[in-house]
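Now for one protein, fold included:
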Amino acid sequence: MNAVIIAVLVMLVLSLLRVNVVFALLIGALAGGLSGGLNFTDTLTSYTDGLGAGATIALSYAMLGGFAVAISRTGIPELLVAGVLKMVNKEGEATRENLAKALIIFALFAMAIFSQNLIPIHIAFIPLLVPPILHILNELRIDRRLIASVLTFGLTAPYILLPYGFGLIFHEILATQMELAGMPIDMADIPKAMALPVAGLFLGLVVAVFVSYRKPREYRAVEAATIIEETPKRTASMKDIIVTVIALIAALFAQIQSDSMIIGALAGILILYVFGAMKWKEADDVLTAGMRMMAFIGFVMISANGFASVIQATGAIDSLVESAAAIFGDNKGLAALAMLIVGLFVTMGIGSSFSTIPIIAAIFVPLSVEFGFSTLAIIALIGTAGALGDAGSPASDSTLGPTAGLNVDGQHNHIWDTVVPTFIHYNIPLVLFGWIAVMFLG
């Protein structure tokens, strides 16, 4: 069996058995390396060599976690909570309760979308907004799997379709890698090619919200003030509100100008420090609490980079694609399906669609040309193959982010409450609609 398949299957099975994702990635990498012809020493060397690539993103999330918890200490999130509570203060009033549910879901949905394109902060908003409203979600008995599905859709669909913010980066990577593989494209064609696959993601969202997780689910009551950490908060003054808004704007501006989430978070934290919205005597405990909250994501991202390094060292991705193409011969439909499944396996292991495209484009472009696919069809094929597995991967920040916010009180399992639901509702329709797009665009 191909080393990529072995590595990903081992990682997924261990994750489903509730083995820690970091250990599952390490064991999966060892299994893939050894089955791919590397000896134990070479496998371990490739894994450790790849770890450094994840250090920047790990530090970025740690800094953003510290910034998010610092803002939460100013009392700003409590103002949001109080506003929502006014809508649910009449027990048994179904209309009011449904309106509150709709408001929360829509607000998180909108913020997730904005975080990719309009306000490119990615998952940084989740630890800021989600933990303070968990007790409201509990009162309303909202299934957190629904919230995870909403957040993951907002973290993936916009960058796949829209060429702004993170979407611009994704589209540029797709266009650059296709050109390097011998097929220059017009970036304006990418949204046209990816519209139908994203429609599949939207269908999955509709099913998750209105069918799969619409029923109430009971959770233990946990006070919002004690969810993140047992450190004091205060009522937000007008000065705190103004300083916090300035800090958020400064963080966004610094991130855009420096292209660094680390610098953005640092700018926001410094403003909270300098203008007194965060007290000096509390600062160390607050920032440490935020970093600890996001530490799990950092370790997973570091481990995922080691996993990717081993998989690439085996050379098994090329052989996997070639074997799939040989099996299906001249059948374009089956060949397209095989390439989409290969993309799913690669991204499930690596955890990043942005990293998957450079790996698969060099193989998929000449193979697709050989099968006679059009340029738009090849864009749809490679774009969808890269996006597959971002939702539903244990190592993706699109699933790790929602879990970081929803599991602050220990009642949301990363694998069974985020990974499995998003895999079912997004990867299955994305394969189907992506395949239809490829065949329709021919």
Remarks:
- Confidence is low (pLDDT under 50) at residues 224-231.
- The chain is about 75% helix and 0% strand.
- The first helix runs from residue 3 to 16.
